[in-house]
UniProtKB/TrEMBL annotation:
<dbReference type="GO" id="GO:0016298">
    <property type="term" value="F:lipase activity"/>
</dbReference>
<dbReference type="Pfam" id="PF01674">
    <property type="entry name" value="Lipase_2"/>
</dbReference>
<keyword id="KW-0732">Signal</keyword>
<dbReference type="InterPro" id="IPR029058">
    <property type="entry name" value="AB_hydrolase_fold"/>
</dbReference>
<protein>
    <submittedName>
        <fullName>Lipase (Class 2)</fullName>
    </submittedName>
</protein>
<dbReference type="InterPro" id="IPR002918">
    <property type="entry name" value="Lipase_EstA/Esterase_EstB"/>
</dbReference>
<feature type="signal peptide">
    <location>
        <begin position="1"/>
        <end position="25"/>
    </location>
</feature>
<dbReference type="GO" id="GO:0016042">
    <property type="term" value="P:lipid catabolic process"/>
</dbReference>
Length: 283
């Protein structure tokens, strides 16, 4: 699948674009992948629910969804992506660093905008990494549950990660996305919240991780180096379907970042969004 080559090209793009983009740029001004954020898109009868893509820590609309965004658009979905959580001094293409209770209202406003533009009653969420945690705050505390039908979570961490400190988390992420190495510890308010047993996680999971009425699909990888253990992504709830990538494709060694650019995962996401039209994952 040449995942490493894709990641190398992506990290080069991240570094060059972040250096060339003015620090005053606003999140919504960042370019979106092909077919994404077409505000004239009207949902079809085949795919009546718009999809909102929520990036992970260190990602952005234009980078995290460079593969999956065009795939969804090519399948006829109205796909939208935001960049959230940009504190002062952080490169505009490196989001997710603000405390998650500050980022969740950004998601709420973006979903409202998507609903208004498309005329749809609900959206489906597809999140990666932090983009599987921050939206939970939106669903539970900002009234988001009434606006969401399905929630597809890639490398989720409902139980947090056992990494010991912010520096370790940023160092591991910077191994895949070097531009993240420019972010000082003190600017990552979300990092501490992602740790197992953090106050944020305790509040988020006080009444169980799953939100009633939402159709969850979680996609994990055994080779996740950021979500430790990877089973933190297992959602024990009757409205959740849990998938371990290697249980489907044993020879797929994709880790935390690579799964967002993985055709096997892409097919799993499409199947979760359209169960009636699900197709086999061809490993």
């Amino acid at each position: 699948m040449r995942i490493r080559g894709v990641l190398a090209a992506l990290t080069a793009l991240l570094a060059v674009t972040a250096a060339a983009t003015p620090a005053t740029a606003q999140p919504d001004a960042a370019a979106a992948p092909s077919g994404v954020n077409d505000w004239s898109c009207q949902p079809s009868a085949e795919h009546p629910t718009p999809v909102v893509l929520v990036h992970g820590l260190g990602g952005a609309a234009t980078t995290n969804w460079a593969y999956l965004g065009p795939v969804l658009a090519g399948q006829g979905y109205c796909a939208f992506a935001l960049t959230y959580g940009l504190p002062p001094g952080v490169p505009p293409l490196t989001g997710g660093f603000a405390p998650m209770e500050e980022s969740a209202p950004e998601l709420a406003g973006f979903v409202d905008r998507v609903l208004a533009a498309t005329g749809a009653e609900k959206v489906d969420l597809v999140g990666h990494s932090e983009g599987t945690v921050m939206p939970q705050y939106y669903l539970k505390f900002l009234g988001g549950a009434e606006n969401v039908q399905r929630y597809v979570a890639i490398t989720p961490l409902y139980d947090g990660t056992t990494l010991q400190n912010t520096s370790e988390l940023l160092d591991r992420l910077a191994e895949e996305l070097p531009v993240v190495g420019q972010v000082p510890d003190e600017l990552c308010g979300s990092c501490r919240q992602l740790f197992k047993d953090s106050e944020f996680m305790a509040k988020l999971n006080a009444d169980g991780a799953a939100v009633p009425g939402i159709e969850y699909t979680t996609i994990m990888t055994k080779y996740d180096q950021l979500v430790t253990p990877y089973t933190s992504g297992h959602l024990d709830a009757p409205n959740a379907t849990n998938i371990v990538l290697q249980d489907v494709c044993p020879q797929d060694f994709s880790e935390h970042v690579a799964v967002a650019f993985n055709p096997h995962v892409g097919r799993m996401v499409l199947n979760a969004l359209d169960p009636a039209g699900a197709q086999p994952v061809r490993c």
